[in-house]
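Researcher: Please predict.
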Amino acid sequence: MRARRGIFVGLIAAFCLLFTLPAGAVTLKDPRLSVDFPEDYIIITRDTVKKNIAYVEHIGHSSDSFLRFMTADSVVLYAATANNADQFQIKVSDSDFSGSVYDLSTLSEADLALTAEALTAQFSGEGALLFADWVTANEVSYYRIATKNGDAQHPYCTVQYITIANGSYYVFAYYNSTAALSDENAALMDRVMGTFRFERRTLSGIDRATSMFQTVLVVTGIVVLAVIAVVIIITFVRDANDSFRRRERVEMTIKRRSRRN
């Protein structure tokens, strides 16, 4: 019975590999990003969940539940080994905080320290913090947080590379189903992270947007002033006419009284 079960599981795994996207270089259009995974990794995007239903069901999901998971966790790209022991997730999300920061590269050292505290509190979750530091990859600064999660029977480690750009969080996360990270794990993370790139709107783009916003404000101000001027003129003309009519009535009254006398 066990032998049959083992053969059955093996057939499922083989079947999964036949119906998954080929691993390697991956490019997304929305959001615009690219990354290169090892050849033995299975890659899933939100658009390819149903195409990868064999693997999705193999790891305990339906196509709907896996898509809900990706949407709820802001996952735009999921890559894992056939046994799901090693896993990468790329997440892109927005918040009031990321919108206010807009781009980590514009922050001062003091602001970066405050941002690190906020990111640690937000992304470390319930796991035990292993380390947290700043790293640079492809000229982008990332705040890296490593945590140990799970329990004694099912431990796993998580390493998240977090940056803020374009007013959004870009999170490159690595999950490993072991109690500790090995040098081999670290080398894998560095190798894949070194290929991760995403489109960034430059500061000149921000300046253009700011200039456009200022132009809109100026035009709006001119329109408002013009409306106010028209209202004032109309009011002045109306008051002048009323005053002229009152003066005419007074003069007519005086003339009538003079005639009577």
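Model: Helices lie at 2-18, 53-58, 63-72, 96-101, 109-123, 183-193, 203-260.
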